[in-house]
Amino acid sequence: MQVDHLTPRSRSAMSASRPNPATGAARLEPFRLRGANFNLLVLRLLDHRPEAVIPSLGDQFRRAPGFLRFAPIVIGLDDIQAHPTEVDFAGLVQGLRQIEIVPVGTTGGTPEMRNAAMGAGLPPLRVAGGKDTEIPLAESAPQPAPAAMAPPPAPAPEPVPLGLAKPAMIVDQPVRAGTRIWAQGCDLIVIGTVNPGAEVIADGNIHVYGRLLGRAIAGGQSEMGARVFATHFDPELVSIAGYYAVRDGLGTAQIGKAVMASLVGEQMRFDPLG
Question: Which of 2.160.20.70, 2.60.40.1080, 2.50.20.20, 1.20.1290.10 is the CATH number of 169-272?
């Protein structure tokens, strides 16, 4: 089991209106649909059995109170090796809700696996900027070959180095308990304390010039080169590109000192600063 991060596609705003019978003027309906970006967690199923996943998540709750509680979760299907008929998606959804996690959909996986998940009320979600894939309803007849060769595709643009896509987001005040701050597409710099129960999230690096006592989640969905820096390192949880360590699993980290957290392979590493 591994937790990653996912940002769903933003869509344009929509609103509805109808004429007011008394005045003839347009009147807004009592709702409005708007697109928005949300930082969602992806629960990658390394073991498809609910009886293995649910107790493991419950154990994380005991070691990091409040972690994932009432959080909307996307189920990652890419790592499932079992046949779709062997995966108990209904039992997984029920088990997650019993421990106060809200599964909202799936990402990845084969068309057959996605269809099986849809039977349990888990629709496939699409990643912003990613390639959309259709779930075929039936086999289609083969298409004739094109009459002429298509021109070669333009070369892909070079990736933007981490932290240079946007200027860093700077927060120059303490982050209170219950507050969540997300630096989308950039680094996050906090000048002050990140209090217990607070959560700071960045698609790039996280710098805390103060006491890191809450949760720090860096690297978005897959940026394994991200770092977490803190001048006073004592987090409830630290995560990079979906790999995370809770307070009891910080190993050799110098608690209360200046520390840089990074990933080496799939292992969290904690180096002293200065």
Answer: 2.160.20.70
